[in-house]
Amino acid sequence: MDARILQILRQTAQHFNDNHAQAYLVGGSLRNLLLGEPTIDWDIVTAADAPTVARQLANKLGGFYAHLHEKASRVVVKQQAGETVLDISPLNGKTIEDDLRCRDFTINAMALSLDEAVRYLERVKTPDAVLTSLEQAILIDPAGGFADIAAHRLRAVNKDVFKHDPLRMLRAVRLMMRYGLSIEPETQRLIALDAPLLKKVAPERVHDEFYAILEPGGATNRLRFLDELGLFTVIFPEFIPARGMQQPFPHYWDVLEHSIESVGALERLAAALQGEIRVLLDEAEEQGIFSFEALRSPRVKMAALLHDIGKTVTYATDQEGHIHFYYHPQAGVPLAQEIMRRLRASTQDRRFVQQVVAHHMRPGQLGQDGPVTLRATRRYFADLGPVGIYVALISLADHLATMGPQPLGEAWERHLGVVSVLLTRYVRERETILPPRLVTAEELMRRLRLEPGPQVGRLLDLIAEAQTEGRVSSKEEAIWLAEDVLAIDEDAEIADESSQTENR
Questions:
Q1: pTM for this prediction
Q2: CA 353 to CA 13: how far, in whole Å?
Q3: How far is CA 59 from the centre of its chain?
Q4: Closest CA to 343 of 227, 166, 174, 204
Q5: Alpha carbon of 343 to those of 202, 224, 225, 340: distances in Å?
Q6: What is the pLDDT of residues 138-159, one digit of tens each?
Q7: Up-side HSE of residue 360: CA atoms within 13 Å toward CB?
């Protein structure tokens, strides 16, 4: 136990004693001590007026007071070595036992008087010693949480815990993951029964819990477990038609399984990348245009999960019975936008997922008709910028999830080659494929007397391509090129009008 934290807890216990107020260490703090896990926030409940006692405690400790919710308060003590957080709440009920019986899981429904907690923390030196000592302590445990801790078992306090707060169903999966617990069968049954109630929870809370579930490695297993419990399609009803929706060869999984598998494929790819692509990504990270940490983030995993969401609305079969998903990237964009909006995802996350959904097929398609051209590379990164790196890697994960346990063949090697070419040109030759603009939109409109509109964007793209290919290298040459293009367009328009006149 850190001596600094222990001293703060001693002072806190003394403060409650001086105010003749009983205080208990509860919830996650006590759970973590029993599991031998680090404790960050110290959860304390008291029969006294929590805000008043907390304000006084903040003054005594030289810390800061913050109102959390209802009557709960937070005291933050900042020191050079770090900060200590004390969350102080009033009893929920008349007694500590009443309070504990209102909690979510038995491992969170134990309490120890703050005085007892301090005494035992003073004596113990290792997490194992904490377990041994607390076994002998006066532990308040009306729901049998200590036995569940010993068995590494997660069990609901009662049959109504998820009705009182449906978010607890997602929290159960997060706690299972975080502490290596097993959810006991009756609790699983209750979750499956109450799963539809998750729709009543504030989207921001669902977002935070779901992102926490996605973040660590092994997310595919947790997504499957959410699906087994009936929670996955409550969060993502758009995936309901994906279950059992078959895909053409070489797809091994249906649309739902493929989408979930893509998250795991991305994790494996991030861990196993070697050779030239790994060297290029290391260089990109040094340049600040890529991050391995970001590649493993919930945002990128969300993009992998949703990349094929458009298939759910574009499934079709032709006269020969062949399955098609024509234009599914385009169809997927509004669906992904709605999902991310509904989850109250950040603007940055929404835009990233939208770009992946819209462009995830491009890297795989670029090498189908021969070597990747400079023009195609320029257009790809002109559209996507650094996000193009992540799109390329997600396209590889998509390929892996397509094949499943089937052996990878020439198509995989070709796909790797395309991604290597794209990364090489963007990481090492970026100024060549994306040189600074020779002329701005405003100057082009002024010089050529153009109105704002798509025509200006088209001219800028043509100038950029010519610049990449070395056909123009100055502002005047760029203007001349635009003038030539406009003249050609005008001649074509005149010829078209003449043809229509003759036909009449």
A1: 0.85
A2: 49
A3: 39
A4: 204
A5: 9, 20, 20, 5
A6: 899 999 999 999 999 999 999 9
A7: 30
